[in-house]
Amino acid sequence: MRELWEFTKLIRSKNAGPFELTFDMMFKDQESFSHVLQSGVLSKEKISELYQVNIAEIRFFEIPRLHTIKITIPRKIFSGDVQDTDIYGGQFHGPLIKLRVP
Questions:
Q1: For residue 9, what are the contacts with CB-CB under 8 A and spacing of at least 6?
Q2: Taking a C-beta distance cutoff of 8 angstroms, is the pair 5, 99 a contact?
């Protein structure tokens, strides 16, 4: 079993406006992209569990031509709020990196 980062060239998170986060996973090749998708590891259910968000609020995009998956979720604390610990949303991808892929 390998971790998600081993299949990708890039895993990142960033703001998609002040109220949403987006995660980009850019895979090394078509084989890696297909393998991870077919494994079912990246699903709305898993993202809901990892980030404690309502499954209905998750947007999941597959971009096969670019070997990319993009996922958007609502931010629990909006960007710039006094309680915000990451104004740019660049540190939220951590739980995805170590995701185990069969």
A1: 26, 27, 28
A2: no
- Count of beta carbons in the 10 Å neighbourhood of residue 79: 17
Helix (H, G, I), strand (E, B) or coil at 41: coil
Give the CA dihedral 84, 88, 90, 93, nearest 10 degrees: 60
- Give the per-residue pLDDT at 45: 95
Whether 93 and 87 have beta carbons less than 8 Å apart is answered as: no
In the block, residue with structure tokens 């998170």: 13
Residues 6+ apart with CB under 8 A from 75: 15, 18, 19, 20, 21, 89
How do residues 42-56 score in pLDDT, each as one tens digit?
999 999 999 999 999
Our CA angle for 15, 20, 22, nearest 5°, is 55
Task: Name the residue with tokens 């987006």.
Answer: 22
